[in-house]
Write a structure and sequence with these properties.
The chain has 5 helices and 10 strands; from the N terminus they run αββββββββββαααα. The protein is an alpha+beta fold. A 4-stranded mixed sheet has the order 7-3-1-9, with no helix packed on it. A 4-stranded mixed sheet has the order 2-10-8-5, with no helix packed on it. It starts with a helix and ends in a 17-residue tail after the last helix.
Length: 257
């Protein structure tokens, strides 16, 4: 009986180990490719899916700026080689989404002019993937989504399933930065609205975009300072408009916590 119990336990352990190996793609059989976080966070498991979604807007740029580039990190599993290795990406159309259109909203991944950018260089296992966004007039009234996947080719098989795709959501309108999340809303800036966001920009001269909010949020003092400035600006605005206090596009009074 003890021997049967021992064999059963060993079979469970081998199965579990095998599943974990499959799950995390700890392969050394062939070269595989997958997206990942910034190189400074590659060994921090909390950041494995940190960059799956990025947002962008042309709103802050002058009318002369017609292109923008969003960058993602990609990694080759299995070690470097002595030759460059091209990789392939393709768009994944999402049901129910306003999908970006190749050649209209972004440079197609098979555009000969940019194919040279999709390469893991000789001696390297990491590369930056540029996604080139195009400022089409339709973005003045639309926010489009571009999801794209890694495609296996003669150089690379696929890595972890959860890291085979990335997504960009972009527009030419003022839009909510990703970092303006539930925590930011609850303790610092309140609920997001375009009217509030525009007010913040106009009265401070700061963009309050992803980069700026990330910077001031990383330390308590700068965040508290800017929240204080915003509250003062809102009080001043409402004093000047006693019969018409600032309301957002939903008809709600603009407030800061």
């Amino acid at each position: 009986m003890n021997r049967l119990i021992y064999l059963a336990i060993m079979m469970i352990l081998f199965t579990t180990i095998g599943c974990k190996k499959d799950q995390y793609y700890l392969y050394n059989d062939v070269a595989r490719l997958q997206f990942g976080p910034d190189v400074s966070r590659i060994y921090k498991s909390d950041y494995n899916l940190a960059d799956t979604l990025k947002t962008s807007t042309f709103y802050y740029e002058s009318d002369q700026v017609l292109l923008d580039t969003v960058w993602f990190d990609i990694y080759a599993i299995g070690g470097p080689t002595v030759a460059d290795r091209p990789f392939k990406l393709e768009q994944d159309l999402l049901a129910g989404a306003d999908n970006a259109v190749a050649g209209t909203h972004y440079k197609s991944f098979d555009d000969p002019a940019i194919l040279k950018n999709y390469v893991i260089k000789a001696g390297e296992v990491h590369a930056f993937v540029p996604v080139i966004l195009m400022r089409d007039p339709s973005l003045k009234t639309r926010t489009v989504t571009l999801k794209f996947n890694i495609v296996a080719n003669d150089q690379f098989q696929l890595g972890e399933t959860s890291n085979l795709w990335r997504k960009v959501v972009f527009t030419d309108r003022l839009s909510q930065p990703i970092i303006w999340n539930a925590t930011i809303s609850r303790y610092y800036l309140g609920d997001y609205s375009v009217v509030k966001h525009a007010f913040m920009i106009e009265t401070t001269g700061q963009k309050f975009d992803q980069a700026f909010i990330t910077k001031i949020y990383s330390e308590f003092a700068p965040m508290s300072y800017w929240v204080g400035v915003l509250k003062t600006n809102l009080i001043d605005y409402n004093k000047l408009h006693p019969n018409d206090p600032l309301k957002d596009e939903f008809g709600q009074l603009v407030i800061f916590p």
